[in-house]
Amino acid sequence: MGLDISHETWHGAYSAFHAWRQEIARVAGLPPLDLMEGFYDENSSNPFTMIDIRYPDKNGSDVWQITKIRKSFPIKWDCLKPNPLYELLTHSDSEGYINWSKCEKIADELEKLLPLFNDENIGGHIGNWKDKTKTFIKGLRLAFKKKERLQFR
Questions:
Q1: In terms of domains, do 48 and 123 share one?
Q2: Which of 20, 42, 97, 120 has the CA that lies 20 to 30 A from 147?
Q3: Is the pTM value of this prediction over 0.90?
Q4: 73, 40 in Cβ contact below 8 A?
Q5: By CB neighbour count within 10 A (0-12 exposed, 13-18 middle, 19+ buried), where does 124 fall?
Q6: What is the pLDDT of residues 1-25, one digit of tens each?
Q7: Is the dihedral of CA 46, 27, 72, 98 positive or negative?
């Protein structure tokens, strides 16, 4: 069992879908997805390793700064510039749908990012980053053309 998204966009593990969305965020220049609202877990996420900050200093004098920084997480989506990708990045990975009217705009944004994806095959349910993204774009365009919801199940 795994995630199936209509229009032949995705069939595979939830973890692979999450990894793919993390890669979308990375190539789009967004903060790491695990620091964003809806993904951040204050009990298990370490924002300092995700943003490559070396805290605390050797004598521990930066502890107050760590506390202040930690309180700023998770990063709220509304503080970032609106982009059709947010619909895909923030969507539940197990249920619901994306309305057909949004699919073309998401496809257009993913297409702009294609040159930034690594062209290597990482195996598993992703395979090649670019090919997986092209498949998703094709399905988004099909849903838009047919005026059908992109169903997550």
A1: no
A2: 20
A3: no
A4: yes
A5: exposed
A6: 689 999 999 999 999 999 999 999 9
A7: negative
Please check whether residues 131 and 67 belong to one and the same domain: no
Tokens (6 digits) for 45: 């996420």
- Could you tell me how many residues make up the chain? 153
For 27-62, give the DSSP string. HTTPPPGGGBTTT--TTT--HHHHTT---S-TTSTT
Residue type, 9: T
- Which 3 state secondary structure label does DSSP give 7? coil
d(CA 145, CA 22): 27
Q: Which domain holds residue 131?
A: 3-36+79-151
